[in-house]
Design a protein that fits this description.
By secondary structure, the chain is mainly beta. Helices cover 0% and strands 52% of the residues. The protein has strands at 3-7, 11-12, 18-25, 34-41, 47-54, 59-61, 69-74, 79-84, 93-101, 108-109, 113-117.
């Protein structure tokens, strides 16, 4: 079974960079049929798609976050990572990583990790 797992600091100060890693077990992140996404949910709000990295290594971002977001991967560790720069308290959210099959949607999700932006 595919199992994505988020990890990273739970507290980040304003103006700093938020960095999270998703470690995937049970499936390779370089398989071209799948892509891998970061999604977040702020308190009281809906899910927000942040970006995706494909099995080819190409990445695409939510236009509203593109200037602050970077997604990369380490294929040797079967991990992909999120960096969000210049964070504010509005970036406080539960961050999820998920697998995206080429047919669309997300079929396997991590449990999510809460990141709080506060001084």
């Amino acid at each position: 079974q595919v199992r994505p797992q988020e990890s990273g600091p739970g507290l980040v100060k304003p103006s700093q960079t938020l960095s999270l890693t998703c470690t995937v077990s049970g499936g390779s992140i370089t398989t071209t049929y799948y892509a891998w996404s970061w999604i977040r949910q702020s308190p009281g709000k809906g899910l927000e798609w942040m970006g995706v990295i494909h099995g080819t290594g190409s990445s695409y971002y939510n236009p509203s976050l593109k200037s602050r977001t970077s997604i990369s991967r380490d294929a040797s560790k079967n991990q992909f990572s999120l960096q969000l720069t210049s964070v504010t308290p509005e970036d406080t959210a539960v961050y999820y990583c998920a697998r995206v099959p080429s047919s669309g949607g997300c079929d396997y999700w991590g449990k999510g990790t809460l990141v709080t932006v506060s001084s």
